[in-house]
Amino acid sequence: MTAHDTTLEGYGIRLTPAEPRDATEAWALTDAELWSRMTTPWADSVEAYAARVEQQRATPGLYAFTVREAETGEVRGATTFYEYVPAQGRVEIGTTWYGRAFQGGRTNPAAKLLLLTHAFDEWRVNRVALRCDARNERSARAIERLGATREGRLRQHRIAPDGSVADTLYFSILREEWPAVRAGLEGRLRD
């Protein structure tokens, strides 16, 4: 698979297929500190960010999105579906980041609601997984606030971009949990 044509919109945001041309606006929202607990190295230039998007577009089972404000098209960050295995009814959501001005607000719950709705209602998956570096407490709290269940810790699961050996926290939402998770996210977005 290369590029996809899935666009998701609602709750004031739009998820569009990531394009290398998004790099200029997206990269300007990043920095090494913001990226410090991500699982991939920080793209240290617009060109490096564009190359990462090209790599994502070429990866089978990965759907990369640029997260935008719905009315203006302003870039807020990025997210992906990855490890989509239709025959097994599962997908993961990750490689999510937002510019500092969009952290802690409505952007993440809105984006996750759009992604989860697509995964459970369109793709009919049984399970959506999310994960983060165990040291990334902010991400772990955000995932739990979505309504995901913490499944466990994979010890020394990966080597982080800084060379340190890191544990990974795994979370999931199952099909039977989806109605309650949806209601919780919709409630957050109504407030």
Automatic annotation (TrEMBL):
GO terms for molecular function: acyltransferase activity, transferring groups other than amino-acyl groups. It holds the Pfam family Acetyltransf_3. It comes from the Bacteria. Keywords: Transferase. Residues 13-176 form the N-acetyltransferase domain. The keyword Thylakoid does not apply. This is N-acetyltransferase. It comes from Microbacterium testaceum.
